[in-house]
Amino acid sequence: MNVGDALQAAGLDRREARLLLAAAAGISEGQLVAHPQREIDAASRARFDAWTTRRKRGEPIAYLLGRREFYGLSLDVTPAVLIPRHESELLVERALERLAVRGPCRVLDLGTGSGALALAIKRECPSAQLVAVDASPPALDVARGNARRLGLDIDWRESHWDWRESHWFSAVRGERFELIVSNPPYVALGDPHLAQGDLRFEPAAALIGGADGLAAIRDIARDAPAHLTPGGWLFLEHGYDQGDAVHGFLQTADFEEITAWRDLAGHPRVRGGRSVGSR
Predict the structure, then answer these.
(1) Are 33 and 161 found together in one domain?
(2) Confidence class of residue 277 from pLDDT cuts 50, 70 and 90?
(3) Which of 20, 21, 138, 191, CA to CA, is 20 to 30 A from 176?
């Protein structure tokens, strides 16, 4: 069977079918488009057929291919980690802005998952000293693997880089950072979106933030000042309709200069604030 026939028979969105076929055959999408009569070998066709069957059941393409692009990085992903999304690149941008002002400093990534935030920050700002934590050992394995493959797995003793198993701040007691970033779980338990699209296949612990979706954000905002240096910043991703609540949490925790940033769809997506000092 040739490329054109395989794409036609796939029964998928044309863009998705091209992406899967290119990966199955080990060629670029451009080559598929340029050579629709190219024959697909049996092994590639079997791989493509298996992927299309799973995709029709709803499995995310990122899990099928085992990778996702994020802030210019090609990251390995598995069902143990949340699929990195472009909205979260806002957190990287905010962090890099602060690092440009502060210079070399310690950064904590809470709930690192695939390591997307930490690795993007480290790649763009090699002088930053990173600590990345997650409560899931399988997620940390994915993050460590990405770090090694990208050449960003730097010896802790030399550059203060580390991956730690931790429920939020439990593994960094007594430590302080100039910057904390987090994309915590913020979907409410029972939200109908959990039964739709990619969310059906992603780890619930990385998605669900309690009955109201705000449990993790509430805890992080409350405890962050004890782990920030005076003038240090906290940046949190949140749901499009959670901005007012997150603003309130930051106010209660005595953060100043609380600011909101919108994603490309125009929705409030990130809130940040400056710590006034020790608590």
Answers:
(1) no
(2) low
(3) 138
